Every structure is written in C-alpha cells, then in structure tokens.
Amino acid sequence: MAAVRRAWRPRPGTVPQLLIFVAVLGHLAAGEFALWAGGSFQMFVGEETFYERSTDLSYVVKINSDSSFSSPGGLNNAVNALVGYQGKLILGGYFTTTNGRSALYITAYDGRIWSTLGAGVDQPVRTLAVMDDVLYVGGWFQHANGLSARHIASWNGNEWRTLGQGCDDLVTTMAAFNGELYVGGLFTSAGGVAASRVARWNPYQYSWSDVGAGVDGQPMAMHVIGDLLYIGGEFNTAGGMSANYTAAIDRANQWHKLGVGTSADVYALTSYKGELVVGGRFGSANSGSGWITCRCLCRWNGSSWAAFPGGIFGGTVSALAVFNNTLYASGLFTEVDTSSIKHLAAFNAQSSQWYQVGSGLEKFAITFAIVDLPPEVDSTVVRLTFIIPEVILLFVGPIVFILLLFFSLVYSQSSSRSPNLNRTIPP
Questions:
Q1: Which CATH superfamily is domain 31-379 in?
Q2: Model-level pTM greater than 0.85?
Q3: CA–CA gap between residue 83 and residue 71 (Å, rounded)
C-alpha cells in the first residue's frame, strides 16, 4: 500500500492536474489603467430625457475608452473618495453595504469581487490617500475596527492602526508630500498639537506637527506639483496672509499665495499640461493685476491665472482628473462652452473643445481615481470556474477511487505471490 501512496504524491513544485485546470479557467488577463468616478449618482443619462433609459450605476462607475460606462454595482449609498491600493479600488463614503453585505463606510473592489477592510469605521469616510504602501482614511468617524481613531486612521493591508490622538474634528482632504502626510479639515488640533485646519503626520516619528498658521476655513482639496503642495477650499487666509480660496506650501513648510486667488470656493485640484487646474464655484480669478473671467474652472501657471476655452455654466466643479492626456471635470452643471453637457465633461487639448462623456451622469461625481484592475470576469466564466471542478469531482472521483482500489488489490496479491528472498534454503 505504501507504494500506491508514493505513486499518487505530487512531486515538489508540481500542481495536481485539477488545480491547474481551475487556475487556467479562472485566470484573469492583466488589466489596464482605467478612470473611475464616485459620487451620489445612481444612473447615467439616457437618450430621450434626463431620466429615461437610465442604467443603475450604484454610486461608482468605470469610464471606458469608448466613453461608455460600466459599474460593479452593489453600494447602497454615495461614494466620497476613491484610491488605488495594493491592486484594488478602495472606496469610502456614506454606504454601509455592498451587495447586501456589511461594509461600513469603506470597501475594496478587485475587478471581480467586493471585500471588507476589517470591521470598517463607525461613521462616513470623506477622504483617502496612500503613502509608502499604507492607506490613510479620514472622515467623520471616531473608531476604526473598534479602535479609538478620531477622524483619521490607517490600514496596512492587514490591520487598522491609529495616528496618535487623531484630529479633534472632520478630516476632508489628505496628500503625501515631503515624506509626510498632510491633512486638512475642520480641526483645530491634531495629536494634541494646535493646528489650524492643516497639519502633518510623520509616520516614522509617529508625531503630529502644525503647518505655520494654517488656514481660516475648510480645506477641500490638495494636490502636489513638484516642490509645492497646493491647497484649495473655503478660506481667505493661509499662513497668516491673504489668500483667497487657494494657497501653496513649499518643502520648508512656508506658505505662498496664488495671486489674489479666486472669487469663491475651490473644491477640486489637478495638474494638466504642466499647470495647476482649479475647480469650484467661482466665476473669476485674480493674478494681482485684475480679475479675469473663468467660470468654475481656471488654470495657474506659477505666476498668473488663465481661463480654459469656453466655460462651465450653471453650477460648480466638484472633481477633476487627467487620464490619457484628457482633462475630466464633474460637477453640478448642465452646460459647458454653450453645449448641453450633463455633470461630466472632458477637454481635448488638441481641439481645445469640451465634449460630453458618454450620455452624461444623473448627478455629479465627487471623486475620481485612476486604478489598474483586472477586467471584469464574464459571468459564464465565473460559473464554469466553480461548476466544472465540482462536476469533475462528482463523476471522475468515484472512477479514480475504483481504479486506485483495483491497482491496490493487484499490487497486494502480486506481492504476496512473489518469492521470499530472505527465507532459508534447505541444503
């Protein structure tokens, strides 16, 4: 019998044929980077009217290369933040379930299935950031996975951790800069250190620090370009100086203003063609020599403001992203550059024109993320991956068992009939 067991033991470095079959059938081809959007929308706009012929998107959508939309669905409330982390799309927001399963305000999607990050947090998530392969989460919550974590916590892929004493009020935006995590929000202290709505966390020293005099209102967005961290929001002073709704911090933590700034709140920042792009609800910007018209969207080249061709009418810009050399803007608008465009627009630099992405969105996006995920698996392949191995085991398994039993008996009988070479031969 020992010989039979040895014959069926896999050699080191090999995989049983059944497992190889399952692995090949369930294999996903390498994915490509794609632009994702999250927000309060549940449908994209149909062809006839604003709500007719709409399709469920469930608060998160992938914008495909042909401007069509696809969505994994499953969320029960809005998404506030998206980021790519360890090969997954991380989502934070107001939702509490994915496909009916508990996912408290934060979840992960790998291109095929949803997964949780421990027990999640106890209140909604507002912002996400990644630094040194650690995911940082900020928002309204007080606990993360049961740990006391005031408005901010981190996840290393396996467990939640706190950032000292956290912040004493809402965290709205974060960015990795100069080896530290810069945090903005409504707080006035971070880790017990006085910090007027902007602070920095050093993960190596496990300590919080202020950033000068901070700002006098709520930061809404952060973006790094070279040696500067740009901040936009609902403030009028930064570092103790006048700075209307925009400002910048250098690597020495000195504050800089962007001319006079904009005429109203800034909600989104990105970089495009080497310039800072600013989105919000303003109608003009001032470099220091007078106000120029730039409706909801403006660009800063390091010394002066300039408008984009056309303009966004009737609302605000809440999210910005650049993907495949195209600038994407989403917000509470239905007209761009005299064209009817519903809540999601793209700007082509070669033609200097805006166009609607797909058929538009029912409501505006709050956040964008560019993430590399495997392509979605066809449901037939998913079913085959799990059903075919079960069928094989059901029908082939008994046959293999009978053959094993048969060869085992044959081997035993042949062994009993073989001559005993150790017996004594009489003279």
A1: Kelch-type beta propeller (2.120.10.80)
A2: no
A3: 16
